[in-house]
Design goal:
Layout: H1 4-17, H2 26-37, E1 41-47, E2 52-61, E3 64-74, H3 81-99, E4 103-108, H4 115-134, E5 139-143, H5 144-151, H6 159-169, H7 178-199, E6 205-208, E7 211-214
Parallel strand pairs: 1-4, 4-5
Antiparallel strand pairs: 1-2, 2-3, 6-7
Helix pairs in contact: 3-4, 5-7, 6-7
Length: about 220
């Protein structure tokens, strides 16, 4: 999966567009037409951290979300903070280059255990945001409590609860890594937030390719 075109072909044609419908059948034509009306949007979620940064990519077509990939960028234990930040920046840049998401959603700092922890988290967030902006990707921020509320229904949900709900919502065969699950939850929150905003005026707008547009 090294190009956006291949990813979209693999996901949209096999899972989202034609399914098992025979080529040329009425069902096939209707499914392709539906895809043209609601083209795919790729969202990458980022859960930043100076030691572990989780990421998750979700494909959205209309009100449907499909899992694409997820994982963690782990920095070396004995490196300096600037070196860790370089590793995070490089890792996020590589993921963006490979999957070409339409938008990036990232956790907003609300509180941390200490001023030092908040500072390190802020640095990690900063380099991830710069990686996105450098490649022309719009960035959206969500507080952890809002993400938990949107995905689990409880703003004080535990990491285990978030992990389990992400697995359920995306129909994953097994639990994703916890930091990756948090990133997927951030991406889901962004998709659902934008979709809700697009429907607020009675359905005259829709969320398409990372934008709210008139239908």
């Amino acid at each position: 999966m090294t190009s956006r075109a291949f990813i979209r072909m693999r996901i949209s044609r096999r899972k989202l567009v034609t399914g098992n419908a025979p080529i040329g059948s009425d069902k096939y034509v209707k499914l392709v037409a539906a895809y043209v009306i609601n083209p795919m949007t790729l969202i990458i979620g980022i859960d930043p951290g100076s030691r572990v940064t989780g990421y998750g990519v979700i494909a959205s077509v209309g009100s449907r979300q499909d899992y694409v990939t997820s994982g963690c960028i782990r920095t070396a234990d004995k490196t300096t903070l600037p070196q860790k930040l370089h590793e995070i920046f490089t890792g996020v840049s590589q993921i963006i280059a490979e999957y070409s998401p339409d938008e990036l959603a990232i956790e907003r700092i609300f509180m941390a255990r200490s001023a030092e922890s908040a500072l390190k988290l802020g640095h990690a967030r900063g380099v991830a945001i710069v990686a996105a902006v450098n490649q022309g990707i719009p960035v959206f921020e969500y507080e952890a409590r809002k993400v938990k509320q949107a995905v689990v229904g409880n703003g004080a949900a535990t990491k285990d609860q978030v992990q389990n709900m992400v697995k359920t919502l995306l129909k994953l065969p097994s639990d994703p890594q916890k930091d990756a699950a948090d990133a997927l939850a951030i991406a889901l929150t962004h998709i659902n937030t934008q979709f809700t905003l697009a429907r607020m005026d009675g359905g005259s707008q829709t969320f398409r390719r990372g934008r709210i547009v008139d239908q």
